[in-house]
Amino acid sequence: MKYTTEVKSFEDVNPCNIHGRNYAALCSKMNGAFVFLLVSTFVIWKVSGQCSGTAESKTVGYTTVKVSPPGYPSPGYAINSNCAWLGSTSISGSVLLFRVTDITLSCAGDAINVYDGTSTSGTQKHTNECSPTSGARTLGYQTASTGNVYTTFTSDATSSASELGFLMYMISASDFSGTGCTSAQSLIATSTEQYLSSPSFPSIYPLDTDCTWDITTTDSNANVILKVLFMDIEHESSCGYDYITITESDDNILFHLGTTTKLCTENLWEPTHTYTSSGNSFHIEFKSDDASAKRGFLLSYVQSETSTAQSSGQSDGDSIVGLVCGVLAAFLLVATAVVVAILLYKKYTKQQKIHDNKIRPTVSSHDQYDNNKNVSYTDSIIFALPECTKFMSQKAVFSEKSL
């Protein structure tokens, strides 16, 4: 465990001002050392400011904000810490959804407390939380109806290598499900970011839910950009219980392909999934079964500024699969047409009787007449058709009269 020394004044570390005297020559020789010392001083001041006894303010929108004590996760928090944070939503009418995870605090004298409000006078959500046994501990989801979360953390004068701290997530939350869980709902993506959520979000979504939304751009040449901001859906390896599906249309010349992504992830706070439609729409479905409901999801959608040539940003390979399938299908179609054309050409040239009077066969010494007075030429003949000139070895049959 590292102990952080507090620097009260910039004068304490300024080599250019020693006992009130200005040593310019000394400074010119120590520029590198002074810059390093200045940066180090700023870092120490920043760490001390977080745990000086005054709450650090955190503005929370629809993107996750994280809180942790200085030193987390390595080398660990300092002894004798007294830290506080105030998280406040930036969206009117929204509540805060939060969760404290990865708690490794000694219960002998270290603790975290969380309140729904702007101070310790608010409703207490977590009281003197620590990790009584070895290993990290995660608390359950909580919501702050006031739109504010006040968190305090204190540590005593002892420490150990296993005391690393904690990690807290916060995000603003509202129910953006609209009417999509009653009947299919059409949504219009514009240049302003909008949001879509599971029903009752951030509360637990209902059982046996079946919701549908269609998101389309106002510009038929633009695309829809979709981001997963939060997700807590019952996990199963094949997403067979509760899940969300995101389907896009790819309106190219030869095919109408749809790429579908199926998601069911628990405790996802980071916006790691971003999708850009190939066309100008997304079809979204959310379904839940009759057990084990979770918190749900929060998505954002916006219309792109310019149209993109193909789908990009799918969940690591989904659109690539669709693109490869389309290319292979197009290749097979073209290859089939070429093969059929070759076969037809061969059949035509094999069965064709030569009638054009412009043809002048070169007769070899192997010519002979049959009983019908037809002459047969078995050597090469030269075709002098207007559209082609080539040598072809074949047997041509002419009547005596035509010759």
From TrEMBL:
PROSITE patterns from the xrefs? CUB
Keyword Transmembrane helix attributed:
yes
Q: Which UniProt keywords apply?
A: Disulfide bond, Membrane, Repeat, Transmembrane, Transmembrane helix
Does this UniProt record's set of keywords contain Transmembrane helix?
yes
- Superkingdom per UniProt: Eukaryota
Q: Which InterPro entries match?
A: CUB_dom (IPR000859), Sperma_CUB_dom_sf (IPR035914)
Segments traversing the membrane:
320-345
* CUB domain mapped to chain residues: 51-173, 181-304
Question: Which CDD domains does the entry mention?
Answer: CUB
UniProt name for this protein: CUB domain-containing protein
| Organism of provenance | Mytilus edulis (Blue mussel)
